[in-house]
Please model this.
Amino acid sequence: MTQRTEIKALIAQNCAQQEVLLKGWVRTKRGSKNVAFIALNDGTTLQNAQIVADVELFGEELLKQINTGACISVTGEWVESQGGKQAHELLAKEIEVYGEADPEKYPLQPKRHSLEFLREIAHLRPRTNTFSAIMRVRHLLSFAVHEYFHKNGFVYMHTPIITGSDAEGAGETFRVTTLKPGEKDYSNDFFGKETNLTVSGQLEAELGALALGKVYTFGPTFRAENSNTTRHLSEFWMIEPEVAFNDLTDNMNLAEDFLKYVIDYTLKHGKEDLEFLTQRQLNEEKQKPQNERNELNLIERLEFVLSDDFQRITYTEAIDILRNSKPNKKKKFKYLIEEWGADLQSEHERFLVEKHFKKPVIITDYPAKIKAFYMKLNDDEKTVRGMDILFPGIGEIVGGSQREENYEKLVAATEKVGIDKDEVWWYLDTRKFGTCPHSGFGLGFERLVLFVTGMTNIRDVIAFPRFPGHAEF
Model:
């Protein structure tokens, strides 16, 4: 029996073979009364294999079943192509139709579809070139994440999806309950207390780091934030490394090294898909007004991150730069920086990266009032040892900090944001028993995929996006 060959491997060999078995989905079919040309794709590559099927050999009835979207198996001889669009083609000897696709009903016809339309048929959109490329890049990034941490001695830690704590103290959580609507006696609930879907694995990761030295989490998180923007999801994946005996400088070094590693890995191993996505981005840029176009294409933007050391500045220095800057004669900041202590907007972050420093930027020492309760206070007691990493085209991509290891200060911080210390007693305990300096950061994985693929809507870099009013598939 002939062994199935993947199209990617077959095209890479670039030589004729006696007999080949291909299986995949039909992209297009064209031809004449005598011969049919079928473009077949199996998801391993952007490139299709051309199948040449003799009408007399297979008959019109069988070939009528083979339309765009149909799934087939083809055995034949891989030979040099007579046409100029591909180097080789498969002269079909046997064809089996696994599943037909009614051409009147199949929504992915061979034409350009809008991203909005494709979101409505997320169960089929991975069959398109754009989304198959995105999914393969997402896979490469996932693999690189695990490889980086494994090589650097981290322990992969699975933290709870169901939790009784709100790590951020923001209250935007999804409740998990078996109580009937209206019931509020949580002693009768499944877990005997109020629980919700996790917004972060960080607090539990800290527990791991204070025993194992270096750990990381990579799992789903959930935030009930009613934000219908191109940068927010209700369900997304978070990467959160945590390291004992590390201060803020160590944390910045780790984050910069990590980001460069995973981007470099994807550039080396996902060249075909990234080149396709770059061309797609360039075509979209042509539709924009000249003054709104990105100066760098996708691959140039990735290389921009790799080729420069990240600029490190304090929040106060950033505010001074922004106050004294003139972004553009035609385009001013929409949100003015009026006072120290204001949170930075995306336009401010991008200005610092793309216009002022022309390199990735790490901002440190933020005002305590705009950062999470667990960040370590500086000696001025107004700022914290937190850091954000800013990238071109996207703004903030990483947020992290040195954690507060002082018990009394941490208790005071929880009270200030309204977190009951009895609910996080286990977290506070680590500050009583063998505490030490430690730090970590969080990276929204979809935000990273968004940057590496050049897409503009975060709903397009996860297979089945969840956002307000939408939980299909």
Observations:
- The two ends are 37 Å apart (CA to CA).
- The chain is about 30% helix and 25% strand.
- The chain has a mean pLDDT of 93.
- The first helix runs from residue 7 to 13.
